[in-house]
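User: Fold this; tokens only.

Assistant: Input:
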Amino acid sequence: MPPPRVAWVMDTLDVSFACNRQVDDALIARLDGAIAAMRADGSMARFDLR
């Protein structure tokens, strides 16, 4: 099966994450790390994210 591809972009929008204050600090650190890794490997740009 071929990988998914963008067929047509109708609009773009900003995406944000919000977490409850009770979310464990270790989980927040993992999320931050994942976002940093996506910036570093170009994933954010491929999905038009900042």
